């Protein structure tokens, strides 16, 4: 099945179970300051779950555009490293607003997976929230999944492993215990069951999350029961497509082939399995869809996340040999691939291309000099004597306890300030060399510059459009968020 057919099959299945097919909402959340980008299918129904909004239907199904880059669910650092994460992806979902609850949700999920999609039952593993005996019993007694294939997982508050069976949209908002379905891609792939030390591998891939929405979490972390228990589910279209197309990585499915070929064409890279091509194929989707939904590259908030994704893409193109704007040339390939499902790509094509090209031209003016500094510094670090080596477990790509090479935070700041290298871009390059960035020194340099600007009274007089003081202040905040995401690598639900 092609991914377009899988999308349709999902929606039709739930339509046949009385669900209203609802269109995807924008990637820019409507009237919700707690959310950077739409990160799940339930976002557009948040107020329905909370009881503030009513619809004419109590069951809905969607294929929702999602972006997970920045904010609570941030997968930017995973792209290019795992088989299963994108910045932009489509989440297939079914929703019950005070209608059915655990029993039907689980039965529907099993029916779709094993009867419509005909997945092998002995490849499927289930997790339930540790205390959720009801869900455990439904899976084992009613659906008939052997008890040894149903794993109980708690809410991972600072726990050792990544698994977390209590889903939250953000720090506040609707939330509840969940049950997830994992697919075993086979023992030739590294990875362990959820809740095990090897769970971050890509052998057992989570395909579907069914959340039993029961609470609204407030700023103090207090859980208030929702007016009516509800259901919210999410299945990544790219992940289920990989399973149904018999491939392991999402990047091997039909939808990505044209994009990877386009990336290779524009950078003249012949190795179609190269991680940089996957990053480009991923990032063109995120960038184009964000621009189509009205985000423009800038120095703060959503615009800065978009700029970071674009610059990361450019850096990967640069690594493959591109020396002038190339990324925007992938837009027609994306429109050809996804334009019929998402007409906003067709109507926005010109604007998307122009926006990307301008941003590329701007960054290509500084990337060469910046990269030279970055690479020199890394080379110097790698040269013995190794007085730079410290024993810290913070390195993104290091094994805890191993020595870690640390990139100078002052230099990272200079790259940021003078050459427009977002911290995560520098960290991404460093990670390829097994080097981590001293973010504490980076933050200190940022704070010092702010202080100097303030003392010199230059705050309002800054002339550079891109790097004026006021904007630097805000980027400091973004950077803090970055740091969190780098250090919390693989640690989200
Ligand atoms: P993972 O543990 O693999 O990071 P998750 O637990 O963070 O996934 P959920 O928040 O439960 O994901 O989202 C519901 C579903 O959306 C997942 O089961 C998966 O199929 C899909 N999904 C989540 N994040 C991504 C992503 N970055 N790229 C592609 N699909 C994703
Ligand atoms: Mg999950
Ligand atoms: Mg998960
Ligand atoms: Mg995740």
UniProtKB/TrEMBL annotation:
Major localization listed first in the record, in broad terms: cytoplasm
UniProt cofactor(s): Zn(2+)
Location in the cell: Cytoplasm
GO cellular component terms attached to this protein's record: cytosol
GO biological process: alanyl-tRNA aminoacylation; negative regulation of DNA-templated transcription
Reaction it catalyzes: tRNA(Ala) + L-alanine + ATP = L-alanyl-tRNA(Ala) + AMP + diphosphate
Domain spans labelled Alanyl-transfer RNA synthetases family profile: 1-493
Alphabetized UniProt keyword annotations: Aminoacyl-tRNA synthetase, ATP-binding, Coiled coil, Cytoplasm, Ligase, Metal-binding, Nucleotide-binding, Protein biosynthesis, RNA-binding, tRNA-binding, Zinc
Record carries keyword Zinc: yes
Enzyme category, top tier: ligase
EC number(s) on file: 6.1.1.7
Textual note on the cofactor: Binds 1 zinc ion per subunit.
GO molecular function, one term: zinc ion binding
Family the UniProt entry places it in: Belongs to the class-II aminoacyl-tRNA synthetase family.
Record comment regarding domains: Consists of three domains; the N-terminal catalytic domain, the editing domain and the C-terminal C-Ala domain. The editing domain removes incorrectly charged amino acids, while the C-Ala domain, along with tRNA(Ala), serves as a bridge to cooperatively bring together the editing and aminoacylation centers thus stimulating deacylation of misacylated tRNAs.
Function: Catalyzes the attachment of alanine to tRNA(Ala) in a two-step reaction: alanine is first activated by ATP to form Ala-AMP and then transferred to the acceptor end of tRNA(Ala). Also edits incorrectly charged Ser-tRNA(Ala) and Gly-tRNA(Ala) via its editing domain.
This protein's name: Alanine--tRNA ligase
Organism: Thauera terpenica 58Eu
Source organism phylogeny: Bacteria, Pseudomonadati, Pseudomonadota, Betaproteobacteria, Rhodocyclales
The gene coding this protein: alaS
């Amino acid at each position: 099945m092609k991914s377009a057919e899988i999308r349709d099959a999902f929606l039709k299945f739930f339509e046949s179970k009385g669900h209203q097919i609802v269109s995807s909402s924008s990637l820019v959340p409507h009237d919700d300051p707690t959310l950077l980008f739409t990160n799940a299918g339930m976002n557009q129904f948040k107020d329905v779950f909370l009881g503030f909004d009513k619809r004419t239907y109590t069951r809905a199904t969607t294929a929702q555009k999602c972006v997970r880059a920045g904010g609570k669910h941030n997968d930017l650092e995973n792209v290019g490293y795992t088989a299963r994460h994108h910045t932009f992806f489509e989440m297939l979902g079914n929703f019950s607003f005070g209608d059915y609850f655990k029993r039907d949700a689980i039965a529907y999920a099993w029916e779709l997976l094993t009867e419509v999609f005909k997945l092998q039952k002995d490849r499927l593993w289930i997790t339930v929230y540790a205390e959720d005996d009801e869900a455990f019993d439904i899976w084992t007694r009613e659906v008939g999944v052997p008890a040894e294939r149903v794993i109980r997982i708690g809410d991972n508050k600072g726990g050792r492993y990544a698994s977390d069976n209590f889903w939250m949209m953000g720090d506040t908002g609707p939330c509840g215990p969940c049950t997830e379905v994992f697919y075993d891609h086979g023992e030739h792939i590294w990875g362990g069951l959820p809740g095990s030390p090897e769970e971050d591998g890509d052998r057992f891939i989570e395909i579907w999350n069914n959340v039993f929405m029961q609470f609204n979490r407030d700023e103090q972390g207090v859980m208030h029961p929702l007016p009516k228990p509800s259901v919210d589910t999410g299945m990544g279209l790219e992940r289920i497509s990989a399973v149904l197309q018999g491939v392991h990585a999402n990047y091997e499915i039909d939808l990505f082939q044209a994009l990877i070929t386009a990336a290779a064409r524009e950078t003249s890279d012949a190795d179609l399995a190269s991680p940089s091509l996957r990053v480009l194929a991923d990032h063109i989707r995120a960038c184009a869809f964000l621009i189509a939904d009205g985000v423009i590259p800038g120095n703060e908030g959503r615009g800065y996340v978009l700029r970071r994704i674009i610059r990361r893409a450019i850096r990967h193109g640069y690594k493959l040999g591109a020396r002038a704007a190339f990324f925007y040339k992938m837009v027609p390939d994306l429109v050809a691939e996804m334009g019929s499902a998402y007409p906003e790509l067709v109507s926005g094509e010109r604007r998307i291309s122009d926006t990307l090209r301008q941003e590329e031209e701007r960054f290509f003016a500084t990337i060469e000099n910046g990269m030279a500094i970055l690479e020199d510094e890394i080379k110097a670090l790698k040269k013995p004597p190794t007085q730079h080596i410290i024993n810290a477990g913070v390195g993104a790509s290091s094994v805890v306890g191993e020595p870690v090479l640390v990139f100078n935070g002052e230099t990272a700041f200079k790259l940021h300030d003078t050459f427009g290298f977002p911290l995560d871009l520098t960290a991404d390059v460093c990670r390829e060399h097994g080097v981590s960035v001293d973010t504490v020194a980076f933050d200190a340099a940022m704070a010092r510059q702010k202080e100097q600007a303030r003392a010199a009274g230059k705050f309002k007089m800054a002339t550079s459009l891109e790097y004026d003081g006021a904007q630097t202040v805000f980027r400091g905040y973004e950077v803090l968020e970055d740091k969190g995401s780098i250090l919390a690598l693989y640690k989200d639900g």
